[in-house]
Amino acid sequence: MALPSLRENLHTGPKDASLLTQQHNHISSLIWSGQDRLLRARQCYFPPGPKPHESILTMLKTTGFGYVAQIENVNIDISLISALVERWRPETRTFHFPNGECTITLEDVALQLGIPIDGDAVTGTIPSDLRGRCRELLGAAPPKNTWDDETLELSWLATKFEKLPNDASMTVVKQHTRAYILRLIGGLLMPDRLGTKVDLMYLPLLENLSKVGHYSWGSAVLACLYRELCRASKTGSTEIGGCLVLLQAWAWDRIPTVAPPLRTLSDDQASRGWGFPLARRWSQYFKNTKENVRAYRLALDQLDDHEFIWTPYASPTVRRFIPEDPGEVCYAMVPLICFGIIEWHHPDRVMRQFGLRQPIPHPPTNMDRVEGVSMIGRAKWNVAECGTWINLWMQRRDRLLHGRPFHGQLDQNSDYMRWYLNVTRRWISCEGARVGTMVFGVRNILKLAKSETTTNPTITSIIHTCNEMINVSQQYYQPLPSKNWQFVPPAKENFRAGDIKNVAYKQPPPPPQPMGYYPYSQSYNPIQYKPPPPPPPYPSSSYHVPHNNAPFPPSWPHNSYPGAPNAVVTAKPGTASTTYPPMVDMKSVPQRRPPVPASTLAPANAPAPFMPYTETEDEEESEYDSEFSNELYG
């Protein structure tokens, strides 16, 4: 069958456009029409040279940047990055894969990079005389040809602070440490548009090195990465910035079919800290061949349920590298702040990543007003402009996710999957639709034949599956790209972190140190029920559950979510109605919903989030999803 006929016969989605409202400007529209795109990565690595002085490394540990400084030589596969961006949806800040939504969370940042995620928001008032602050905090003012009032050339930092004198005073050590942190920020964690400069707005936050660990650098990194993913997903974009090491390590740990084979570390190496942060395990990998984005796109289009690992950090082979639990902030539904960049953390849309059952989520937080905020003219940025978002971040421990344990795969006929397949963009390319329809059709028929589902198959459903398979008469297959990587042992020379050459330490790294500044006295258990936090304002529109054509939640009238003008919401049948005022402007504090009644709370002795979970019976799934959705969102 010719490709034009295939495009006409297959509906790639979304069938219900109430969720993915920006499809007309999304890169997947161009890919489906037959065009292609390979992004350019804005990522800067340090030039060859010796590793930082031991005094600098010691001080980096106290600031929360000690772990990330050990990530070396991670080769970025821009073809894989481009394929992932095609499945990133700016409407939800999540990836849309065949088996559901997933995203990079604060848990991934803490474990993959080892930087603090708890603490104050990374923001503040930017001084007008940044060059004078450089002279004060770095001990030298940059030449005029190396800075432009707001950004500073990374090459000048590398040259000026290349070597620490042996008789350096503590003041000089602190100056070199600040310069090294700026290089980490501009070259690895939050690269600018070119990947060759660092923004000087971060420098005042480094004045007191003993308080640097008080900031949530992890949430700032995630905010910048979210923003870059949203920009790169648009049709006119040709490049991407942000922490691509984090994005690639996240994908490799969760999708083994697109990852190189990971070398095994001994228990002795694990005890020495060689496996943490987790992104460090992928150091020294180089590709044998150049894969194209089309191969990765096809692999993601036909991704099966068992080919995506929802909880990779629960594996004993990975847990042995983690020095401590990253803390309860991982479960917080809060804004992510990096000065003028504000994004939203949506763990409630990816609850399976925390070992919890996923109900149909609420409409995502509307970030249209802040999405257009540019960091151009940052010297005029005032902390008061994002006061509402800072207040929400400060309430992070009152906005924690809660849920019920779940282990396994959701049935295709579950309420969530029926809703998801109706609102998502299922296929990215025609090749993926051709292969995916055949592969998923055969898998579904095999599941029915093997009685792997409790849903009674009907002749109509089988005929529908077979008709979809008939519409794609040609099967297309390419080998997966994960076999073309190899581990290259590090050379004997010593280089800086992030060098394009091989890196080796003269001595084994020290045992793991606590992540960040704040100690975690106890682990957060999301299974212990608490009244849910007040959600942010939602758009007045609602999307539908395809089951019985009923709006979600069933007890809410159509187009009557809290925030809609004069909306009236009944929390549960038989209870009094609650009238909400008209939706306020995004500048003000968001509306709040009534808390969940105490009678719906789960027992306090529920298992910890990283312990094995018991799968809920499929026949109870439909009834449970409707009940639990009301409990989660009120």
From TrEMBL:
Biased composition (Acidic residues): 615-628
Renumbered residue ranges of the record's region Disordered: 567-634
InterPro entries: AminoTfrase-like_pln_mobile (IPR019557), MAIN-like (IPR044824)
Pfam families attached to this UniProt entry: PMD
Record-annotated Aminotransferase-like plant mobile domain positions: 64-420
Superkingdom of this protein's organism: Eukaryota
Residues of the signal peptide: none
One of the GO biological process terms: meristem maintenance
PANTHER family: PROTEIN MAIN-LIKE 2, PROTEIN MAINTENANCE OF MERISTEMS-LIKE
Protein name: Aminotransferase-like plant mobile domain-containing protein
Protein source organism: Clitoria ternatea (Butterfly pea)
Species classification: Eukaryota, Viridiplantae, Streptophyta, Embryophyta, Tracheophyta
